[in-house]
Write a structure and sequence with these properties.
heterodimer; A: alpha+beta; Alpha-Beta Plaits; 2 domains; five-stranded antiparallel β-sheet; four-stranded antiparallel β-sheet; 9 strands; 29% helix; 41% strand; B: alpha/beta; Rossmann fold; 3 domains; six-stranded parallel β-sheet; 16% strand; binds thiamine diphosphate; binds magnesium ion
Chain lengths: 167, 558
Amino acid sequence: MKPHTISVIVENRAGVLSRVAGMFSRRGFNIESLAVGTCEEPDMSRITIVVNGDDSVVEQVMKQTNKLIDVIKVSDLSERESVERELALIKVAAEPGTSRAEILQIADIFRAQVVDVGSKTLVLQVAGDTEKIEALEKLLRQYGIKELVRTGKIAILRGTKTVKSSK
Amino acid sequence: MKTGARTLIDALQREGVDTIFGYPGGSVLPIYDELYDSSIRHILVRHEQAAAHAADGYARASGRVGVCLATSGPGACNLVTGIATAYMDSAPIVALTGQVPTGMLGNDAFQESDITGITMPVTKHNYLVKDAGDLDRVIREAFYIARTGRPGPVLVDLPKDVTNGQVKAGGTAQGKISLRGYQPTYEGHVRQIDKALDLIVDAERPLIYAGGGVIHSGSSAELLKFAETAAIPVTTTLMGLGAIPGDHPLSLGMLGMHGTQTANYAVTECDLLIAIGARFDDRVTGKIETFAPSAAVIHIDIDPAEIGKNKVVDVPIVGDVKAVLQAFLQRMQKRGDTASWTARISTWKAQYPLRYREDDHLRPQYVIEVLSRLLDGEGVIASEVGQNQMWAALYYCFKKPRTWITSGGLGTMGYGFPAAIGAHFARPDLPVVDIAGDGSIQMNIQELGTVAHYKIPVKVVILNNMYLGMVRQWQELFYDRRYAYTELPPVDFVGIANAYGVEGIRVEEKGDVLEALETALAADGPYVLDFRIEREENVFPMVPAGAAINEMIGVHHE
Ligand SMILES: Cc1ncc(C[n+]2csc(CCOP(=O)(O)OP(=O)(O)O)c2C)c(N)n1
Ligand SMILES: [Mg+2]
């Protein structure tokens, strides 16, 4: 059992997300994370889904997803050289004084950006792979995380290959 | 300019639709108004569920797409069981539903229901048409998707302002359809086919396990040729009955929970299992770990998702069964030696025939046997669900594809009678019989109104045990004979039939069976036969749930 990052290119049509998500839940496939948005083709969207399961489960996930008429292409990116990223916004308690300075220092190390400065809080924006975001979250916890929001993971193949071009 | 409804009717005619099973209502008034002068025949059923089942029965009997039509809200919701039934057995139907006008969608308007949302899990695809200009294309795609690849139901939801809307007049679209997200694989991979043929030549105990895919793809002739050429015995699933003549020497009958002893032993002992258009359903495999335990497995299916889903496969072949079997026949160079295996199977067949007590009681198996003899394969048999279905599957000798119409995957009581109505319109040249239970027939008994109205000559054979018999059988065997809510008080089915204007007869003696069936088959119109059978007769053989399929009860022992 390991997480697989599945890229799904779909028709950009009403209801497509619910077809895909509904099929996953109906067949008992667990979605760890899901991100959806437009892609390089205006009439297509790209859904990136992280699922956990052994190889036979992931194979079923991919085949069942492929069966949906509005699904154009399904690829397992974890089998290939790819870049995976997610984004988090973290609102952390930061009273002026030493803790604020420490937080800024941590942010710097993680190459997180400060996107909002309040009188008692800072909002950090961090992009990276799951481990990086979780590491930052862990470090910031001691100061008090007021709110945290994460996108699903998105992923792209390295090099000249694209999911549409490859088999 | 023409209306959306006119565009719809024109598109249906282009698709070759000759019959629609439907029920009107407010949101489909524009469609009904166009149907009124159309050459398409509309059959008014008495419940929308029956419209969906009739479309399904029409599709299974003919191989063409069946069409049903219902109004929005309750009408559409009443179709759902029928659509789910078609989905589970891969029957190609197009369900048309009315919908509230687009401007009111999402407002909980009168008779609004989100039928595309509701049917997403039970359709191959569905559409909500929001622009009359899309109608022609959507209908074309709907029929294309329903009948190609692995067939299945497609629903098209039609808001009233769309069917009332104006579309530029003009011809309907023609030519090839290409959907970038839907490109079924038809030709099997040649290397896989050769690998399969190598296994076939080397096998000592090969067995073909043929399913509904053989029927859907119209490959019975290819199956038979292949089985005969390679001298490989064939067992079929419930859905595959008729794929090979039941009386053929290579035919072992049905396998699985109520399979024949020979079929289940053959599966257990074969060294090569060739699954053709079948999906290793749990009612077939029993305990999956012990299913064909010593066999290499070749699996041919048009749906790649079925391959490897339930059983690990050695040689997967994705493709149309017909194309793959043709390639098998073309590329096969030599055949293996199966003589001792087929001899072994013949011994089993002789040793373990189906049997029931042949006394002077009126037993259901006897009724089916007589019917089978009378029709001699020249008829269409629909069934309900339960013991009646299994007795029909076991004791009727199916000789041709598309002559057996039953709800396998969903097991829908109430399916058979409306499906038989649909089958009649697909095959008006053949007698059509619904083999029913007293429970199931009451789930769509209102369709007596339809058969009376149109004088549809469907014969209903009720195997009346005054029980929900199959459930009672499980209670007898596994719940200490505690018959919780499975006994049904006697019903005067002949009286009900007569009230609708349908002829009927009650049969209580074994000696009257033949004459009653002959009378019913000879009658021009519909007929109801109420056979008061031995009440606690059971369906055997039976594999208890979770057991290996060679562990049958109610069978011969040496
Ligand atoms: C719609 C529906 N409800 C419940 C069941 C569960 N069920 C399976 S067989 C059966 C009994 C059927 O009784 P009857 O039609 O009299 O047939 P018999 O088994 O007696 O031949 C029931 C209730 C079902 N298959 N379908
Ligand atoms: Mg009964």
